[in-house]
Amino acid sequence: MRTRIRPAAVAAALAVPAILAGVLYPAAALAEPTPSPGATPLDRAGTSFLSAAPVTAGQPVRLDASTGDYLYWSFPGEAGDVTEIAATLRFPGDAKRSGPSTWSIEVFDGLRRRQACTAGTQTPTAAKDATEVRLGCVLRRVRSWAEPWSGDPLPGTYYAKLSVVELPEADLGLPVEVDLLLGTTDAGSSADDGELRAPLAPPARPGAVLTSADGSGASPSPAAVADGGTFDWVPAFSTRWIWTTIGGVLAAVAGVFGFSLTWRRR
Known about the structure:
Residues 1-31 form the signal peptide. The protein is α+β, with helices and mostly antiparallel strands.
């Protein structure tokens, strides 16, 4: 028996991830970053975490590098910030490349933990005859607090690393022009604090029947009321009482049976 898949169902299934992405990450965070007016361009990059060149949001970065270099930049992250990194690599026309190359942009926090990107092309592949390639990464919102084991981004210094991860060995050292720009959107840190409108679990009231979500209108159980009064001295029987009684009876029978096996008549 074959099952027919309706086009409407397929379209709805494909639309769910896009809707969730729009809800979890604001549209402003996905906008292309733009240079800040009057910002001084940066023409250098570090070769490790220790020598990373500091850069701020809206400050354009433009420098000449060689294929195979590891380029590092550092930037601050405050609580509520959503940072987007956009990089463009241009290959000079006179540089004869022998094959395609794959580039990567990675982001690490102050503890050298790699942070996941929620959007952007992190590892694009440039064809042999391509003149440029674009990379991008949108970080998660920096939280004001997090559990130590969660790995969520916290306020502090972050590092962006740009490198080539796959290319023909003959292309190592070829020139490349690097353009990089950071954009930051303040999503607010109030999302870490909140108040539940209703409890996750309704209040437990033994002997009462909840007729609404808030527990209002609860009435006492008929079994707990007799002759106009409640018998507080009667224990609430449950499966625990039943199994306890059964266990006691079995223990007594086992004790008597064991004694009969060991006792010898004179």
